## 1
Amino acid sequence: MRRQKALPTLINVIIFILLEVAALEIVTHHSLLQQSWVAKAGQFFKGHVWGGATRVRSYFSLTQMNDSLSRENSILQGELLQAREMLRAVRLDTMKLQQQEGFSSIHAEILKISRNKQHNYIVLNRGFEDGIMEKSGIITAKGVVGIVTSVSAHHAYAMSFQNNDISISARLGKEGGSGLLVWDGVSSNGAILKEIPLQYLYSPGDTVYTSGHSLLFPPDIPLGTAGQSKVRNGSTNEISIRLFQDFKELRYVTVVHNNSFEEIIEFEQ
Amino acid sequence: MRKSSFWLVYVLLLVAQLVLCNYANFTPYVCVTILPVMVLFLPIRVKPVGAMLIAFATGLCVDFLSDGLLGVNAIALIPVAFLRNYIIELVFGRELFIRREDFSVRLHGFSKVFVSTLIVTAIFLAIYVWVEAAGARSFQFNLLRFIYSLAASMVVSILCFQSLAAHSA
């Protein structure tokens, strides 16, 4: 019954469109003003249709674009690390610019990440065949993510920073006191900076950086901002930190390895 | 006999429209038309496709034989024919189509015929004014032209639908 009614309506609509187009054609054929008006309307319509199509296409290619931006970001981060190492070398010895070994960096994607436990972990899509080594740090532009603990040919297993067993050497501001940064055990972007001597003054909102005292992470990576503090044992401050990196948003990371790591460990032994 | 007299009146009104188009150009703000009411009063048995073809032919005929822009009356009149049945159903109800009965002032009252005529004339003039202006005239001018033309056309249409209705039943 519905189909019986729909068919004549469809025919009516088709005839209506055909007749309107024919009439419009006659109008535009006989008047330049109407011709340019219709042409302008056509351009406007086409602009919107093609513009819309381009926007839709861009939306669906966002993943690809994201991948390429992330790779580019990783390369830039590596270059930044090298530049920092060079700068440090210049600072240490202004008479002689030493070629530092520094950190090497590899871009990786997180395949799996746990966030609901006290000992969280991360699985990456790169392994030793890609150049990943054990005892490498995992970072992003927004902070420290974890430490690689074991590596297979194509995958790496890492302890997340959201793990009670991890502490990172961090510093308040560029020249402030150093302490240990640990996860607060609750939130996806909360941490605690421990063992900051009382003589180091700070203000809430100050940025916390990696100190560079650890062999795993390069110095001066911004980690988060300082919040409220408590005095512990009458001698040190314990400061709550809001991390820049929210672990819920993690997808791409950079694995950094200290090229002098083995040499320093050997020397220590 | 009644059927043939309807078409005779239709042709006479067409001639009247041509006279209006060619001689009733008092001001650019007013355009008098009786074409919508002519299409509205086509017999109920004329299906929408037929009505649209008649509207197209009528519009082109007026365009060819008057000084106006060729095709503009056809463009404005085809939507009137396309929407004619919906408007009749909206104003007079569905029974008209079931009984295949043409409407008239005598049977359905002046107000219903007036409202349906107002709707079709407004549709026609809105398209006519918009297409003829082609973006070259201000909105204010178009609005005033639409209002004045609608008022003038309704006065002439009331005179017409009396004669059309008398011959369509």
Note: Helices of chain A lie at 2-30, 32-60, 62-92, 261-268.
## 2
Amino acid sequence: MANRFVIADPNKCIGCYTCMATCVMQHQQVGLQAYPRLQVTHTLAGTMPIQCRHCEDASCVAVCPVKAITVKNQSVQVNETVCIGCKMCALACPFGAITPYGTLPPSLREVGTFEQYAYVPEPRWPAPLYGQSGQTTELHPLLAWRIGQKAVAVKCDLCQFDEAGPACVRSCPTKALRLVEGEDIERLSKLKRSGAAIETASNVE
Amino acid sequence: MTLGGGAMTNTIPEISQYSDVVFIIGSNTGECHPLIAKHVIQAQSRGAKLIVADPRMTDMANKADIWLRLPVGHNITLLNGLMHVIIKEKLYKAEFIQEHADGFDDLTRAVEDYTPAYVEDLTGISQQDLIAAARLYAGAGAAVILYCMGVTQFTYGTGTVASVSNLAVITGNLGRPGTGVCPLRGQNNVQGACDMGGLPNVFPGYLSVTDEKHRARFEKAWNTQLPPKPGLRIPEVADAVHQGKVKALYVFGENPVMSDPDNNHFIHALQELELLVVQDIFLTETARLAHVVLPAAGWAEKEGSFSNTERRVQRVRKAIEPPGNAKTDWWIFCALAQKMGAKGFEYQNTQEIWDELRQVVPEKWGGMTYARLDQVRGLNWPCPNEEHAGTPILYVGGKFTTPTGKANLKAVLFHPTGVAEDKIKEFKNPIVGKIAELPDREYAFTLTTGRRGYHYHTGTMTRKSLPLNQVGPEQMVEVNPQDAAVLEIEDGDYVKLTTRRGNIAVKVWVTDRVPEKTVFTTFHFWEANVNELTVKDTDPLSVIPEYKVAAVKIEKISLAEAKALYLEKAQKYRVELEQEVVAEMQKGWRV
């Protein structure tokens, strides 16, 4: 059976970012990285959130050196505790759907090495502005690093820990997001085949 | 002034149910009013057409059947252009104008010069698009106009609002389901605050303080003398402080240090005050400069009612107790008034206050008892008695609430550098607009400002939310790819934005969302607050500042320079003070 995935309809997406905020909350509550696993993307052609397509022959799975990314339950899943943060999956992903994101160890947070002021939001990875060195890195952004930060691959997991399914789909005010099941694809393909057959057959002289 | 009231004429669900054409101007509905945008999307899927006028590629602009990408500040040019086409092609509703409007001749003469060719010349909007939009809007069975701060926050905002109203009146798009002029209010209860007289010139129910009849009504109800002179409007306060006319300021539910234009001017004024009291749920940038801070209760911690953008009054009930010594706003005001020896502030609960309002202004709220509001999902004012079902649609049958009962069509003239005196003299009381600060050689870009979906106003609340901060962790300035190439800046670089008022360091977002020579950023972040840059020129009638246009200079800066500027701002807004208070409170210290 084909993998499941969440996809947005750009004709319905109004770019309100509700899905991203819901995603952060949902994952924070179960102790996973509090980072949005889908990114609302604005282009002249249209606006829609971009997230993991749960590829059948996923390049991220192929490049992972520690087998932290596996295909299970008709989806591609990262084990955040196994991931060593090598970022190869992010480089390999054709959709930009994997973001290396990490938290600072609690000790560094408490000392306040990184946050000089309250309510300076913890910068997005990689955000060297509040870093100790104060220097930009010459490296490719995906390879940039901050001292004391453990980054792991963060990507859409279809909220597999929640029986109600992906939280983004439920929170979208215009119902632009939907979960496509493997069965849906088969059923759709079958329907389209019928349509194609009918059209061709009825056009035969 | 034009129709008789200052509120949405129709309700939100009508958009998805009845509107054939939705015309959005100066509103980023998708990000700032997603639930209203939802109705627009539903209307589209029903077959309704969408026209969007916006310089920015908002998500609604992207979905529009016709997107009129006008330059910042040219709303009047566009609206006059649309009306020119409608009048020339005789697409207006002559009968409706005849019976229900005054001033059509003046309007016809005012829009005469705004030919499609002239509009194209000024704005770059193709004549074809302008004519198509005019035909689409005027030809609709029911067309609704949604507008927001992109219409009002100019020195000629009143003129633009009058133009919007002109357009709706001449096409007869008022008083029927799915039509109307709909100003979208940005806050859950800003409509309610205005309804209750939270404005310097009116009592509850928009009854003018200068009118003896209205004053007498409230003097009788409140058993006191009331001043006949309107008070100051927010942008006038700073100057009044500088002139020594205002010595004490009481701020609640507002963070003007962040939200006032040219805020350095405002901060200097605060420092001259003898007393600054701030009542808020958090220690805002304004509260940190206060002599006295009164802790207020949040929305989930109080009883009462909110009135939303469609004039719908809805009950709000307390879910949790306020923390510590925090009290609801009404309780604090009453306690303060009693301490000052004032009588008539002995309310026990919000219902007593509400019932007093119902008695004093029955024509709007008389029929809205708490018992009724508890049963239904809100009622739209006016609702004069308990049998009345509320009024979802205003001006049914073309009955306007102006003194004459007819809509006033106003002549509105605009040119970015000003309209010739001779032209202005041709009209009786026209509204005339020009842009206060145009780009020049040194400040070569146009700066426009607004909000993003994930943060709310000055970030007082939303920046304390982890999910929202993860979606929008930092300030960004939108720069067009063409301009970025010329300036040799890349996505993620830092730039310094400088105007004649101040400067900020911001991260660059290279995107097609803004047109060339125009940049956009927000006022959510103290470390890069765009209101250090905005101009404080205001509309002479509404005194709304021109937040939407300023001339700005862009320079690429290094990370170290950006960091230095951020640290400077941290000192300016005394960020460490909030940190200290939070730390103290966590130790169990109470305010």
Note: Chain A has two domains: 5-101+150-203, 103-145.
## 3
Amino acid sequence: MVFLENFRIALAALRANLMRSILTTLGIIIGVAAVVAVVSIVQGLQYTITQQLQGVGATFIAVSPKQDRGNFPGVAARQVKLTSDDAQAISEKVPGVKMMSPFILGRATVKFKDRKHNPFMIIGATENYQDVTNQTVDRGRFFSQVDLENHRKVTVIGPKIADELNLGPNPLGKEIYIDVYPATVIGVMEKKGQNLGMDFDDIVYVPFDSAVSLFGRNTADQIQIRLLATGPERVEQVKDGVGRLLRQRHKIPASEPDDFEVQTQDEILKTVNKVLGSVTAVVGGVVGIALLVGGIGIMNIMLVSVTERTREIGVRKAVGARRQDVLVQFLIEAITLSLIGGGIGLALGYGLGALVAKLIPGFPPAHVPIWAVGLAIGFSAGVGIFFGIYPAAKASRLDPIEALRYE
Amino acid sequence: MALIELHDIYKVYDMGAEKVHALNGVELTVERGEYLAIMGSSGSGKSTLMNLIGCLDTPSSGSYVLNGTAVQELDDTQLAGIRNKEIGFVFQTFNLLARTDALHNVELPLIYAGLSRQERRERARRALEKVGLGSRMTHQPNELSGGQRQRVAIARALVNDPSILLADEPTGNLDSTTSEEIMQLFDELHRAGNTVVLVTHEPDIAEHAWRKVTLRDGKVTSDQATARATGSDRPAAAAPVS
């Protein structure tokens, strides 16, 4: 009863000094808003990436040429290669490979009648691509082996391409131009959305050989390979096999590092989580400092408030307030102050996260997990208690006679 | 049994090098229903005595029995309880909570008494009506005159039905007309059966009481009935109990 009453008294006191209360709690607001904004963005990223990677399945393996040639001092001239022949060798010689899909990436303008569009990327792939990367064609079909063998001029497009080129309700059969090469649309991919700045709906797929003629011979020397192992238990074996085979084929001496990368789904997930985890940790540290500063601000104002209200404390004691009543009153005031800050910070941070996610095209929506809400609230309450206890104890120990005499 | 029994009370303040004897063996008994004025110049120890009677402080030695409770043995928390139940303070400077309306100010002791919101509201309203402020309940102290503020303070002192109404220079901050009105209110409250203890240095204020105790250098130097006590308006309720 007295506790509830103390809560009312605390709220009334905070309302009486509204501006001061807001300024005091600003440190907490900023701290909590910062952590929630970053966590919401990072969590959003993590959530979407995890979803997508899990979508491709546990047997998924990516093989890519190593990008950072700066790591090979003195051998900068060596061309890092990953070729169709490498891909072919993998699928023939490495046991445990269920499916293999080589592909190349490039950019080109697409045209239909007077409409032009620059897709996010052009992917030159084989008929397996769809199955290896676990994608679905919404309408029509993906390339077949027959298309590839007969060098048919066909293309499969993302849903956004159909819109951008104004292909109408039925894009199938329409002939579009990719750079100067005509191609007939035989399929439209299912809508996948955006992630990490990549628009998966803004992609044009062409047969592997068409892409080679589109982008030039040397692009075929730096391809990407995606594999599926026959089962999750064989993933490590395939990874080792691919590594050994490629080192042998690329004639890499034992002292030199790989000029390619083999990553399993599990490893990609771990890498992503590691990066995002360390971002969260760094931000957490900064926010810890912000909350510390915010807490000191609260302590400062509470001390001022105790001095200002010395007489009030004296009156309360004279009419029967016990030490613990005064202690609880001021403690609740400090906690309320920091909790309100935490609440505002939470809302602000979420808004900020959502806004950032919305402003950056291709960014996944912000996602605030329950633990972050709990953490923000718990932490601000903790700050209130920690920094409020000293001023509250000071108030409770005031001698009523002195307090009543205080001018 | 008397309401207040002070026996051989000493209060010594340790001021570093020297010890100050604020009270030097005070003997005082106050019966229920009395109307008492404690007089004395500044430094006589009357404020110290008032703080002791009001249970804001404890004596260095001696015994104080208030309404059957040996106060000198109580700890801080118990003293707070006694102040809440037995004492109604009225201060010279009113000591109302700012930005808090009259009703909530009067409610204050009842919060610490642990009463329900509804009962607090009801009793505070009755107390305010008793002091003639029924129409000013939602006014804040800065919207009230000095006399009205003191009435709110008196209502606050009365609201928990204390054994003693303890007023420290209640008219010290008021003009003479308002002072007279406030003193008439105390007279009325006394007639209604309340025990009133006034602390004052003004003789004409002290004349409202029926008994006058004078302090000097921490000792009671005189203890006598005032002119009023022999007057005609002596109520039956306050007949001397001896």
Note: The longest helix of chain A spans residues 265-308.
